[in-house]
Known about the structure:
single chain, alpha+beta, Ubiquitin-like (UB roll), 4-stranded antiparallel β-sheet, 4 strands, globular
Amino acid sequence: MANPRDYPDTIQSAESGRPLRRGVKRLTIIVNGERFTYGQPGWWASIDDPADTDGQLTDHDNVIRAAGRQKASATELLNCPGAG
């Protein structure tokens, strides 16, 4: 992953004390019973383990998180019977 903001290679988790590395983790959220998976940039203890949710997000990462949730909601609405 590119490092345009010159972040350090690792940071320490404020909650667990574990080392976190910058990367994009595939997260699955459930919106109105439907599963939606998207790539969430952030600082993660494990990129590959979906059960390990220890991580931290920057302000910019939270914008992407909100957009992922909005897209999931919109997709679910478009797939409802009678929509469109």
